[in-house]
Structures are given as structure tokens and as C-alpha cells.
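FIELD: query
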Amino acid sequence: MALGLFISAQAQNSVGAKKKTSIAFRLTALDFGTAEKVQNSPIGSVLNAKKWGQYASTTKAIGVSYTSQYTDQVDIYSNLDITVTRSPLNSLKGIVSNENLLTSVESGINYKMLKGDYRVNPYLTAGLGVRAFAFREYSAYAPVGFGLQIKTCKGSNLNLTTTYSTKMSKSFVPTYNYGFSYSFLLN
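FIELD: result
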């Protein structure tokens, strides 16, 4: 399970009368420790015991996001994130770690609750994704969650999104099957 913090800057240009597209450069913080705790016990007990991971203990990643407005209420997105992380491996000497690339690619939709141009617009998000460790071991997942789109100035938005990724396949490392992520996108 991974807990992430995404910070992005997006440029936006208009396609047609109302259709907008944006590209974001992302900085991500993944918290695998908290994800493992939530996998082994209810999320409420992790929160009550204050066992949520700290930013300093996260794995940092960089990425790119592409978003396209499909209708007034639906945006389609694709994200690519890359990081160098450790994968625990079993060996004759016990558990060892190796460092390599962890790549995540996901696509999905954001369904806005309000139709029209509002200062704050909540939305639901759902998608499908694939993670690869060292481009050899793959795992599929489905991120679902919610967010807020906040207008910051003319033509720009700040998107705050929280997702929980559920496993869609057996993973090479059990903690990569599930995940929490928080994203901050500016477009």
C-alpha cells in the first residue's frame, strides 16, 4: 500500500469552446509504511493510535499528469510517476533490499458534483493503473477517491485529491497492491 503526496504545476490551453487540457509536473511522496499498517489493521485504529507516517519517512517521486475536459462535469486524466525505491526480497540470508525504479501509470475520470463554473467544485475520481518495479515485475490497481477543484485565478485551478488504490492483481511486493495518495495539482 502506498501513501502519496503529489504537488504539481500545470499549463492549460483551450481546445474548442469549452474543452481544456493541462499538463502537470508532479512531485510525489509515497508512504509505504503507513500503507502496510492500514493493510494489517483498520484505518481507524491507525489514525487513533497516531501511527500515520511522516513526510520525512516517505519515498519521493517525480511525475507528469495530463488532464482533458470531456464535458462540463467529467475530466479524463493520465498520470506517470517514477521513483527510485527499495523492494524487500526474500533470500537465504533473510530479507534484503535492492534499489530500482518504481513506475506508476494510471488513467481515469474525475466526475465533478456541480455542473458549471463554481469557485469550489467537489468531485469523485476513479481509474485503473499499473505499477512496475525495475520494469520486470508488474501490479495492477484501481485508484478511487474524491477531491476539490478550487479556482485560484482566471483560467487556473487548484485540485486537491485523495485516493485509495485497491489491488487488481497479485503484486511482486504485497505493500504495492494497495495505496493512499494525496495530490495537489495547479492548472
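FIELD: remark
The longest helix spans residues 32-40.
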